[in-house]
Structures are given as structure tokens and as C-alpha cells.
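quick one before i forget lol
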Amino acid sequence: MWQERVRRIQNLMEERNLDLLFVVGRENLIYFVGTTQIECMALLIPKAGEPQAIVLWLDAAHVREKGMEVVPYYFPQETLVDKAVDCLKKAGYKAPRIGFEKYFVEFSVYEGLRKGFPAAEFINATELFYRVRSIKDEDEIEKIRKASQILCSGMEAAIKTIRPGISELEVLAEAEYTMLKAGSSGLPFRPQIVSGEKTLMSHPHSSNKVIQEGEVVVVHIGATYEGYCSKMCRTVALGDIPPEQERTYELLLQAQEAAIGKLRDGVTSEQVDAAAREVIAKAGFEKAFLTYIGYGVGLRQSEFYPIIGKGRKEVIQKKMVVDLLLPTIYKKGIGGPRITDTILVKDDGAEILTNYPRELIRI
């Protein structure tokens, strides 16, 4: 499995004229090595040939089971970066162009490589990783499908728990416990079971706030299975909510359905976005609506390829998995409700993997 994934990213490396990818981000290690049981590791992917896994000696046997060349290091007398520099020098590198992940490289690792190869060039290769991960194989799809099934059980638990006088965190506790029992490896992002005016914040999170009668409650949660994520958002009307907010939810649901209807192999991200944005614009709310309405889903809950939004040129391809449509109408007294689903792209359409009722939930 990892061999094909390495070959695919080696093809992309040619575009950036990279000699080497230095991989330390956990998500990318899971992707290329094929196990979640990894820490304190680096993967060296050359532009041609086989990768080397620099692994803490205690974990070497586990990684070798994946069929990959393993170079153990013995901490504390050896460090990961020192062993990596030694391997690269033995391979003959002198002034390599090294591709990095943007978000995951510790300064000590960068400093060690810079010291070992003062003439090296360090290139931001983040997009290459997201691009190669955007097309899922059957194993990945099944893991996301399983995560989605687990997530639906968590959503059901959350909905059953919501009532006046209970805190957002109490609802979250029931949802997370249910998902863990069903096989989730944990939450993939800071969950958003939020209520009242908090639903209009850009990135709210669950707190000790007590849920009140007459409030909108947004339940935006996720689950993971063997490293792969699924996410879903539903909206609950607790008692009588303002009719403007009910209409907002119906509007967002129509926009989501329009976007899903456009989603298929060969369309562009901006075409999918335009289908949703047309619904919002006709209702007069485009200026109160965000630029982006979806992201890839996989080893992260929000992968940065493709990004579905206004002006985005990415071509949607079959076997991509994306989410659609989280933004609300950002206008006080009207906005707050939200909806999103994890969706598999197919040749002639799309399959919603988070198979949970999508109408406004009334309690």
C-alpha cells in the first residue's frame, strides 16, 4: 500500500524539483507508513527509490512489519535529526532541495538539518502532501465510512441528551463516550456543541454554558477510525426559536443540497461553491456568508486540498472525500444554524457518508 503512495508523491516532487521530502507530521507518517502506532519518527522520501524510516529503536520492529527500510536511533545518546543527517550524508546528499511540511517541523529538527547541510534549500511542500492525500483508495474510504457510522451514534447520543439546564460540555461528554464505545479513536478537532449567541462565533467550542429553552444548539462533532476522520453538523431548535433562524436553517439546507447536487468527478471547486452561493445570494445574504464552504476530509478533519469556495480552481475528482457546508448567515438574530456532512465523490454524483437526518431537529 505505501509503495503506491510513495510513487505518487515522487511524481509530484518532480514538479517542484525536490531531491527529498523530510516527513515528520503524524498525519503524513500514518499515510505513508500505514500505522497509527508511531511517534518520534521521520520518513525520508527521495525523488527516486525507496524511503527510509528513522525510528526510535523501541518501535523499529513494528515499523519493519510494514515492509519499509528502518533505521533505528537510540535516544538519548542519539537524536532523530542526527540519525537523519547521518543517513542523508551516507546517501551522498551535499546541497539537497528538501521539502517540508509547513506546520509540523520542530525548530530543533530544522536547525539540525541546516547545520548538517548548510548549502541545502528548504522548500514548503505542504500542498504536495494534501494533493496526494486527496484521492482516497478503497481502504481509506472504508475507514472514513466506519468513522461516519461511529459519528452518527455520537450525534444520536448528543441529540438525546440536549435539554434546558444541561451544559454544552455535558452533552459533549455523552456524545464522546458513545463514540469511544463504538470504536472511535477520539475527537479529530475541538468539538462545537454550542448554543445561543455563541453559534455566531467563527470558531466556538463547547463550554460550561448552560443550554436554555428557546435557543439554537449547534452540534458539530467528529469521530476517527484508524486515523481517518469524519465530521458532521446538525442544528437543534430547543423549544420555540425565532422564525428567522428557522428560515436560515432551511436556506442553508437548500444551499447544501444545491452544492451536493453539483458535486461530481470533473467539476471545479468554484462550480460547487457557486451552486450553494446562488441560493444564498437570491435570499439576499451573500455579504453575510463566508468565502469557503468545504474542505477535503481524510487524516485531518479539514484538509487543504481541495478547498471548496469562491474562486477556487481545484478540479474535483472521484474518490475525493469532502465536507459541505458549515458556514451560517453571520447576522445577529438571523444566523446561528449550521449543517455539514462528509461526502464521497463518485463518477456521476456524490454519496453522503454521514447518514443522519438533515432536517432541523426540534426538541
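fyi The first helix runs from residue 2 to 16.
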